[in-house]
Fold this sequence. Notes:
mainly beta, 8-stranded antiparallel β-barrel, 11 strands, 56% strand
Amino acid sequence: MDAQATTATTWIIDPTHSEVQFKVKHLMVSTVTGSFGQYEGQLVMNGDDFEDAQISFSADIASISTNNEQRDTHLKSADFFDADQFPKLTFTSTGMKKTGDDAYELSGDLTIHGVTKPVVLKAEYGGQMQDFYGQTKAGFELSGVIKRKEFGLSWDAVTEAGGVVVSDDVRLIMNIQVTKQA
């Protein structure tokens, strides 16, 4: 018999034990945190090394929450994400490179507001564990910075004193737990 072909392993995001957040400076003096409540994604790899993983992710723009209904409505409007026309943001990986013992550099194409740009995120591997039901779980913390205006989120306002209301830099922070599929 010929050498066995490596079987692909699929891992699915467990939204109960994950969070997808963004942080943006307001008036350049404080930070507002937002999150997406509805998202899905998977990681497909061959063998036991996450370095060759193919990752896909999407989040529903309508699920944005900053704990302020008026701000959330504004973010979903045509001034920002335009949820009616662009209901999802998506990410598709183009590479995952090991940079340390539990550290990776995740490259991919991020699409927001109909605009696709390459991004690089830091990924810290938290390890694996079996849960009470015998399912294998793995955890990652991802982080990076994007420029919102590059994705067409160009709404701007300046205070009477000349201060910027919303910064261009948006920090992404994702704590993701994935479940290995049988």
